[in-house]
Amino acid sequence: MIMGSLKGTLAAKETLMGEVTRLTQFTDELQRMAKDVAQIAAQTNLLALNAAIEAARAGTAGRGFAVVAAEVRKLSELSGDTGKHISEKVAVVNAAMLSVVQNSQQYAKDSSEILLSSETKIGRVLDQFRNAVSGLSESAGILNSHVGEIRGEISDVLVNLQFQDRVSQILTHVSRDMEKLNAYLADIDQRWSAGQIHQPIDASSWLVDLAKGYTTMEQRVNQFGTEKAGKAVPEVTFF
Amino acid sequence: MSKTILIVDDSLSLRQLVSMTLKRAGYEVVEACDGVDALSKLGSAKIDLIVSDVNMPNMDGLTFLKELKQLKNHKFTPVIMLTTESAEDKMKEGQHSGARAWMVKPFKPEQMLAAVTKLTMG
């Protein structure tokens, strides 16, 4: 849009210059006409001079004619001077217009160069901008794919952490049972030292107690087998 | 206006990941580390749904659920229980105590989000 308006301004200047050049042609014509006037005046002057000579030859009879010839001569000299003045003024106007045309031509040339240079620069900036946009779009695409990958990884981590939670609960349960066994053994040892007879461990009731603390299907399957472990509930149940 | 979810779990990392998943989906989140902490945070915001673990120290999830249902303001607040517990009798206990869903670990984030969306829509 800016380039269009600059080009429009240049075109208007070229039209104006065309008009000035056309005026220069008129002044040339005026110059020629002024020269013609000067030439006619010179010839009239010559004729007046000849008439004055002829009047002198006629003597007294030619006296009146001599006065007219002198007046004609004066007028021709005046016409010659006026023609010269017109010619001088036209020369001045012509020189001024030539100067305007030359300046305008130089200005138009400069403007064209500036326009060309601006076009190149704007083109370069637009190219850089296009490259930057394309780079940004590419980066956005890469980031988007990374976001997708990260989301997938977060999902995996969440699932893994839950496995860890299950394992941690099983281990806590095992650890509590080991502590219970340890306390039981210490008690037996104490009774043995005191000479008391101790009852052997009732493994089945121990296991029943152990099973009460189970929270996962894996623990029940390990102890009772798949068939007796009971029915596992679905992953998600709505009530 | 976005819905607010209370997450109750003693595992900090699990809580944070569930919280992140819900926040990305546009929910507001309040966190608590056990049943006692959860009861104390009920007044901090208008809670639209609770996601609670079952096995936790201080107060486990089922006890918290029973206490919650005694409260006038939260009698109808939907609760999803997240648990490693897959035994049917425990699930029945959760159901009778007023839970709206029973989700067995490990669950995928999208499964949890689907359950949360389903129960907050109604």
Count of strand segments of chain A: 1
Mean pLDDT across the residues of chain A is: 85
Shape of chain A: rod-shaped
> What sort of overall outline of chain B do the alpha carbons produce when their principal axes are compared?
globular
What oligomeric state do the depicted chains represent? heterodimer
One letter per element, helices H and strands E, the order of chain A comes to HHHHE
% residues in beta strands of chain A: under 5%
* Share of residues in helices of chain B: 40-55%
How would a crystallographer describe the biggest sheet of chain A?
none
Greatest contact between two chains: A-B, 27 and 34 residues
Rg over CA atoms of chain A = 61 Å
What order do the helices and strands of chain B follow? EHEHEHEHEH
What can you tell me about this protein's structure?
The complex is a heterodimer of chains A (239) and B (122). Chain A is mainly α and 239 residues long. Chain A is built from four helices and one strand, in the order ααααβ. Chain A has helices spanning 2-58, 63-193, 203-212, 217-228, and one strand at residues 236-238. In chain A, α1 (2-58) runs antiparallel to α2 (63-193). Chain A is rod-shaped and about 195 Å long. The model of chain A has no long low-confidence stretch (mean pLDDT 85). Chain B has 122 residues and is an alpha/beta fold. Chain B has helices spanning 12-24, 35-41, 61-70, 88-97, 109-121, and strands at residues 4-8, 28-32, 49-53, 79-83, 101-104. Chain B has a five-stranded parallel beta sheet with strand order 2-1-3-4-5, sandwiched between helices. In chain B, α2 packs parallel to α3. Chain B is globular and about 35 Å long. The two termini of chain B are 15 Å apart. The mean pLDDT of chain B is 89. The chains are: A mainly alpha (239), B alpha/beta (122). The interface between A and B is medium-sized, with 27 and 34 residues. β1 of chain A pairs antiparallel with β5 (101-104) of chain B, so a sheet runs across the interface.
